[in-house]
From TrEMBL:
Record-given protein name: HU family DNA-binding protein
Organism per entry: Peptoniphilus faecalis
Keywords, in A-Z order: DNA condensation, DNA-binding
GO biological process: chromosome condensation
One annotated GO molecular function: structural constituent of chromatin
InterPro entries xref list: Hist_DNA-bd, IHF-like_DNA-bd_dom_sf
Length: 92
């Protein structure tokens, strides 16, 4: 499912107009992104937890020249831990 399909589904489920469903989804995604950027966890009960986790600088290999070693800089990555409820829904 892509973003447009998600918006359509939200609009149909909530009886919102698609423009309002799009606005609500974009506000939700922006809020989650802003919270993660500031180092906060985002926990949605019954769905899961989003968290920004730092990775350390490490050595890697240049994919275009496998003999060349490169430094992969430290960065933050987003992790998602699904709730037990979401796991049940997915696994039946």
């Amino acid at each position: 499912m892509n973003k447009a399909q998600l918006i359509k589904n939200i609009a149909e489920t909530t009886k919102l107009k698609p423009a309002k469903a799009k606005e609500a989804l974009e506000a939700t995604l922006t809020t989650i992104g802003d919270a993660l950027a500031s180092g906060d966890k985002v926990k949605i009960v019954g769905f899961g937890t989003f968290e920004s986790k730092p990775t350390k600088e490490r050595m890697g290999v240049n994919p275009q020249n496998p003999t060349e070693k490169i430094v992969i800089p430290a960065r933050n990555k987003v992790s998602f831990k699904p709730s037990s409820n979401l796991k049940e829904i997915i696994n039946g």
